[in-house]
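Data availability (excerpt). The following record was deposited with the supplementary files.
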Amino acid sequence: MRLGLAANRLHHHTPDAALFTWLRACAPGIRALGLGLHAVGRTHDAIAATGLLAGYAPLKRYPYGRDGGLMQLVAEVVGMEGEGRQLDGAIYLIDPVDPSSIFPEALALKRQCVIHGKPFLSTVASARDWIEMERLHAGLAPDPGADDLHAYGAQTLALIAHDALKAEMLAFADRHFDVLSRFARRVATGTTGQRLNELAWGRGWPPDRYWVQPFHSGPLGGDAQIADLVLQRRCQRVIFFEDPHVARQHEADIQLLERAVASRQHDAVCTTTPAVAQRWCAAVRLRTPGA
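Predicted structure:
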């Protein structure tokens, strides 16, 4: 398995920066999985300077971003047939106030991960969560260092789906109702929330209680309401089934939510594709069977 890796300067220019926090937490898991990390120029150089992955052959260096390194990651997420160049997703630790985070190659990296059902991990928490998920699927014992990510009884989960993916969100919630019900609180935007509550009531959830707290629809500010929860550290996990194929009138609100998640590097986990969400639910059951 191979992931592209990039981090804005904010996340690798001091010893306690986000990139190094992630590596210190996950280096044993990275090595145990034999995970290929294909890192853009300065990100690779910063890792090499710390010695955190010293001697780790699957760490590969790509050109600097200005020389096309991030563009190369985008192409390899899509897949370069016949050349054996294929990435299984990407970690891109974003500084939400750095203009490079909205460069075309940065936006395209996320979009192609979503289109191809691959993980796009934009926070330390998301990257830690993904490593733990893959450790569990590989048959390794749970990492106690990841227990905070799985304390669902004290967490809030946001469930969001664009119109074309609302049916998929309902099917996902129906299939994994037990896992999603472990959270202390669930929130959702507009129609998605209404339909999820109807699903829950049909499954026997008490009819006088919401299963998810419904917020406004996305175009009327629901994304902004959930972004506020994330910023206040009152929402720890977002499952957002995005439709990358259509223009959205409330694109600014969607970007607001994404920037809020990126601002909470150590606290917020965001999943943007059904395939990754399904794999996460399976890992939850492996970590706490019968819970």
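Summary of structural features: Residues 18-33 form the longest helix (16 residues).
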